[in-house]
Amino acid sequence: MEKLKEITSGKAKSLYTTSDDRYLVMNFRDDTSAFDGKKKEALLGKGAVNNQFNAFILEHLDSEGVNTHHIEVLNTTDSLVHKLQMFPIECVIRNRASGSICRRLGTEDGLILESPLFEFFLKDDDLGDPLINDEHILSFGWAKEEHITEMKKLTYKINEILSKLFLDSGLILVDFKVEFGLLGGEKIILADEFTPDGCRLWDVKTGKKMDKDRFREGLGDVVESYHQVADRLGMNIKLD
Ligand code: ADP
Ligand code: UDP
């Protein structure tokens, strides 16, 4: 399927129309951003590793009963996906406290939470992606009650499936962000991406950060770490 016209260029990915208006091509770029786009850099090869990493994870989730927008990998940096009506919402689960929750609640980095914590954020860079709750979503009409219930249920399920997958490769899934959309106006589908750009992964033995915090904190070896995670999970990442 050929890429036709670019319809969105986000901070890290671009979406293109195809000859079939049910499908889009998602192009993973090397662009990397943090702090709501305030820190930016192109990291050579990140698009390729993230595209194939994402395909591996979404195919695994599909095999475990989570419907995703992923259809197939087209080349090193492009994948074909179902075109969805996206909710303007991010769903986060935290198994340990890190990042924004530590700043918000003064919590120790790495604190193991009594139970996985679900949070909604509004997708709005200008506002710094504020924390919101179910009431905000309903009052502002960002999603319906049944969508909220389903997004939470699916995010918890994804956490169970992926926490196990990563732990089997010696990695702790500290937290992650996912996005959902509607297919045909009713079916909730996992969209966007699951890559080390949108989650925290720590080595079980050493606590080494293997995710985008390496970029946020200027620790270096960002793309190298993503490859190391991919290798541990048995992915066969192709380079151009
Ligand atoms: P951002 O918008 O945060 O800068 P990206 O650079 O990752 O993020 O851009 C990808 C955009 O594509 C996001 O706005 C995301 O909501 C949207 N998107 C992801 N999957 C789909 C899909 N299947 N259909 C339509 N839009 C999608
Ligand atoms: N996250 C993301 N995109 C965002 C905000 C957060 O992918 O716009 C991911 C982030 O990488 C982490 C989790 O969601 O794995 C929780 O992020 P947090 O709220 O701690 O924000 P951060 O401090 O990472 O900006």
Describe, in plain words, how this protein is organized in 3D.
The chain is built from six helices and 14 strands. The strands form three sheets. Strands 8, 9, 10, 11, 12, 13 and 14 form a seven-stranded antiparallel beta sheet that branches. Strand 10 and strand 11 form a beta hairpin. The protein is of the alpha+beta class and 240 residues long. The protein has two domains: 80 residues, Phosphorylase Kinase, domain 1 (2-Layer Sandwich); 135 residues, ATP-grasp fold, B domain (D-amino Acid Aminotransferase, Chain A, domain 1, 2-Layer Sandwich), CATH 3.30.470. Helix content is 29%, strand content 32%. The site of adenosine-5'-diphosphate has 17 residues, from strand 2, strand 7 and strand 12.
Compile the SSE list and pairings.
Layout: E1 6-9, E2 13-17, E3 23-28, E4 31-34, E5 39-42, H1 46-63, E6 70-73, E7 78-82, E8 85-86, E9 89-96, H2 100-105, E10 112-122, E11 131-132, H3 134-140, H4 145-167, E12 171-183, E13 187-191, E14 199-203, H5 213-216, H6 222-232
Antiparallel strand pairs: 1-2, 2-3, 3-7, 4-5, 6-7, 8-12, 9-10, 9-12, 10-11, 12-13, 12-14
The structure holds adenosine-5'-diphosphate and uridine-5'-diphosphate (UDP).
Uridine-5'-diphosphate binds next to strand 9, helix 2, strand 12 and strand 14.
Q: Helical proportion?
A: 25-40%
Briefly note the CATH topology name of the largest domain: D-amino Acid Aminotransferase, Chain A, domain 1
Which class best fits the helix and strand makeup? Answer: alpha+beta
What gyration radius follows from the Cα positions, in whole Å?
Answer: 17 Å
Low-confidence stretches: none
Please report the distance between the alpha carbons of the first and last residues: 19 Å
The major sheet is characterized as: 7 strands, antiparallel
The portion of residues forming beta strands comes to 25-35%
Number of domains: 2
